[in-house]
Amino acid sequence: MFKILIIEDNDDNRDILKHQLEYLGYEVVEAVDGLDGLNQVEKEKPDLVIVDVMMPGIDGKEVARRLRADSKTKDLPIIAATVLFHTEDIYSCLAAGCNDVLSKPFTLQQLKDRLEKFSPLADRQK
């Protein structure tokens, strides 16, 4: 099963995203902050990471930079989830190593569209 790690410090946002992903047929692993997320990547070996950009401590961009710097995770797909929507915000996420950016709030369809780039399950969801 395709495993997605959610790194999100807001409990409500994490729960909503978890339910959306499970509804779409994905296995979900959760992390409550950037450090927990980096540990979960090591432990759980997810196929994709969805990371909140603005978190205390290690933020989402730093998580992406660290994953890109590690030879074991340098190719791991990372989608940044953020309330930031200006062009420069999106570019900074991409420059940090994220493969794509998903602006909050987002619909189930927008989530599916982003996942299509990375997930073999996406073809079965059409």
Strand arrangement, major sheet:
2-1-3-4-5
% residues in beta strands: 15-25%
Structural class: alpha/beta
Tell me the total number of β-strands: 5
Given as residue ranges, the uncertain stretches (5+ residues, pLDDT < 50) are none
Helix content: 40-55%
Outline type: globular
Distance, first to last CA: 18 Å
The ordered H/E elements are: EHEHEHEHEH
Described by strand count, sense and barrel closure, the largest sheet is: 5 strands, parallel
Number of helices, counting only DSSP H or I runs of 4 residues or more = 5
Summarize model confidence as the mean pLDDT. Answer: 92
The gyration radius over C-alpha positions equals 13 Å
Question: What's this model, at a glance?
Answer:
The chain has 126 residues and is an alpha/beta fold. The protein is built from five helices and five strands; from the N terminus they run βαβαβαβαβα.
Descriptive notes:
This protein has 126 residues and is an alpha/beta fold. The chain is 41% helix and 19% strand. The chain has 5 helices and 5 strands. The chain has helices at residues 11-23, 34-44, 60-69, 87-96, 108-115, and strands at residues 3-7, 27-31, 48-52, 78-82, 100-103. Strand 4 (78-82), helix 4 and strand 5 form a beta-alpha-beta unit. The two termini are 18 Å apart.
